[in-house]
Every structure is written in structure tokens, then in C-alpha cells.
């Protein structure tokens, strides 16, 4: 084998041996951006809950009601919307009120779903 060919093949062999996530995708959740003003967050939550997000878990006495902050409720609503509709072209944006995170935001009995 010529050394030129080896120089081309070697990086390919090394790259292909790096383990990948089984489906090649990283787990991502969609949460509220801390810097978003409350007024904008509230609008985005109302919109998300009316357009596909399942907001039942952030209602009083439900597992994601606490902590009862707009930011936490917005994060749950954004993620619900994003997970359900991401394969239909939805993005984690909400007029810049949302950001993507690789850290699972679930806490206690409040589970933020991740759909592959
Ligand atoms: C919303 O979530 C609740 C609790 O997980 C579930 O019982 C309900 O069926 C869901 N509603 C819709 C429309 O998916």
C-alpha cells in the first residue's frame, strides 16, 4: 500500500471507529431561555399550550406545577411542544424565548419527555 493511500485511509479508519450514539442523535430538550422577559415567556407558553404542547402537568397539583415559576412552566411547555412536533419541522425557538439543552431538565416526579 502506498503511503499516500495510507494517509487517506488512516483518518477514515480512525473516524469510523469513534463510537456513535445508536441512532446518531444526541438527546436534546427545549427549555426557556433565562434572559427572556416574563411578558414574552407568558405569550410563548400560551401559544405552545394552544398549539400542541401538553400542559396538563404544569397545572395545580400536577407533577410539574412546582416550582411554580413562569420559567419552569415555560420550559415544560416548550419541551412538550418541541418533542411532539420536532419531526414535523417544529423548532425550539418560540421567538427566541427558548434554548436547546443536552441536560435532562427532569426533577423529582416531573419528567421532561424526550422522544427519539
Ligand atoms: C396530556 O398528558 C396527560 C398526563 O401525562 C395525559 O393523561 C393526557 O392524555 C395528555 N393529553 C393529550 C391530549 O395528549
Automatic annotation (TrEMBL):
Q: Which residues form the X8 domain?
A: 28-112
Q: Where is the signal peptide?
A: 1-24
Q: Which InterPro entries match?
A: X8 (IPR012946), X8_dom_prot (IPR044788)
Q: How does it sit in the membrane?
A: Lipid-anchor; GPI-anchor
Subcellular localization(s) per the UniProt record? Cell membrane
Q: What does UniProt give as GO cellular component?
A: plasma membrane; plasmodesma; side of membrane
The record's Gene3D superfamilies line, in alphabetical order, gives:
1.20.58.1040
List keywords of the entry alphabetically. Cell membrane, Disulfide bond, Glycoprotein, GPI-anchor, Lipoprotein, Membrane, Signal
- Organism's domain of life? Eukaryota
Primary subcellular site in the record, as a coarse category: membrane
Q: Does the keyword Cell membrane apply?
A: yes
Q: Which Pfam families match?
A: X8
Question: What protein name is recorded for this chain?
Answer: X8 domain-containing protein
Amino acid at each position: 500500500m502506498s503511503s499516500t493511500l495510507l494517509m487517506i485511509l488512516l483518518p477514515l479508519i480512525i473516524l469510523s471507529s469513534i463510537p456513535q450514539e445508536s441512532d446518531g442523535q444526541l438527546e436534546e430538550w427545549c427549555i426557556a431561555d433565562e434572559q427572556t422577559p416574563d411578558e414574552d415567556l407568558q405569550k410563548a407558553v400560551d401559544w405552545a399550550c394552544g398549539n400542541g404542547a401538553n400542559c396538563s402537568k404544569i397545572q395545580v397539583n400536577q407533577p410539574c406545577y412546582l416550582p411554580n415559576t413562569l420559567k419552569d412552566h415555560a420550559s415544560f411547555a416548550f419541551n412538550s411542544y418541541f418533542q411532539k412536533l420536532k419531526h414535523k419541522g417544529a423548532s425550539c425557538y418560540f421567538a427566541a424565548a427558548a434554548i436547546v439543552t443536552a441536560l435532562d431538565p427532569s426533577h423529582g416526579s416531573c419528567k421532561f419527555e424526550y422522544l427519539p
